[in-house]
Amino acid sequence: MKEANRTLELEIPEEVVEHARESGISIEEFRKNLEMFGTMQLVSETSRLSKKEMKKMSEKIKERSWMRTMKRLNL
Amino acid sequence: MDEDNEKVKSVILDTNIILSSLVKEEGFTQAVLAILLSQKDIKLYIPSIAKEEIKLHLPEISRKSNLPNRVITDVLNMIFDNIETVKEESFKNEIQKAFSLVTDENDSPFAGLAIKKAPSFLLTYNKKHFKVQELENMNVLVFTPSEFVKHFNLEIMLKKRVKRRRGILKLLSRLYILKRKP
Q1: From the centroid of its chain, how far is CA B22?
Q2: Which residues of B touch A53 (CB under 8 A)?
Q3: Looking at beta carbons, which residues of chain B come within 8 Å of A4?
Q4: Residue A26 needs a FRET pair 20 to 30 A away by CA distance; which of A33, A41, B64, B101 works?
Q5: Do the domain assignments include residue A59?
């Protein structure tokens, strides 16, 4: 698996920043929101995990979680 | 719902919503997730064991996504840093209540946690696993990500007073549109 660093240059249109400001969204919240969204977009862009596989994986995780929960809580 | 509860929304995240952060075609859910994770008036929760299990499945997730383990860990840590994990012991009674409110017992801890944190929202792709009407009677609203957004939009239209939230929704749509531009 090849690893590489990518730097994303992100220019936010002034109109969007202005809209965020007018809407009462703090710059801190706005920056955090963009960072999170940008990170997820960058990572998922190169991911081969399909929606179907993701749902299957989620079900498997929940099944394992439930078994452990029952054991831990004596259900 | 009293004024304080109205200010801070409790949202329980299904594992499928968290894993959607690693799926290419899930841009919309990622935008919703980014908004939820960055809002101070939204509190996110997940059952403790579910979080542990996601981490235990990292090697398998890495293999299927072809993403390095370290990258997945970074993304999941970024998400989990903003989600409160709740020990199952603290909502055992609610898990037992939830048995009759789910169609798949694997979802009992999620429904149980939502009952514990009610009034709350449960965000999932698998609504059919939950008895939505019965949970609604217990002040738990089960939504898919798109329904969640629509619900808040409707709330704004009805109440005409949450200017800030309308701004967030507009911003979400802008972010989504910007991303989809070639």
Answers
A1: 15
A2: 64
A3: none
A4: A41
A5: yes
**Which of A39, A41, A57 is nearest residue B179 as measured by Cβ atoms?**
A41
Asked, for residue A5, whether it belongs to a domain, the answer is no
Which residue from B33, B49, B170 is facing A65, i.e. has the nearest CB? B49
Domain of A52 in residue numbering reads as 14-73
Is this model's pTM higher than 0.90 or not? no
- For residue B49, what are its two tokens? 């064991």
Residues in chain B with CB shorter than 8 Å from the CB of A48 are 64-67
Domains of chain B: 3-180 (3.40.50.1010)
Q: What share of chain A is helix, strand, coil (3-state, %, to 5)?
A: 70, 0, 30
SS3 B119: coil
> Over chain B (182 residues), what is each successive 10-residue block's mean pLDDT?
63 97 89 83 95 97 95 94 97 97 97 97 95 97 89 50 50 52 42
Q: Residue A6 domain-assigned? A: no
User: Count of domains in chain A?
Assistant: 1
- The ipTM assigned to this model is 0.82
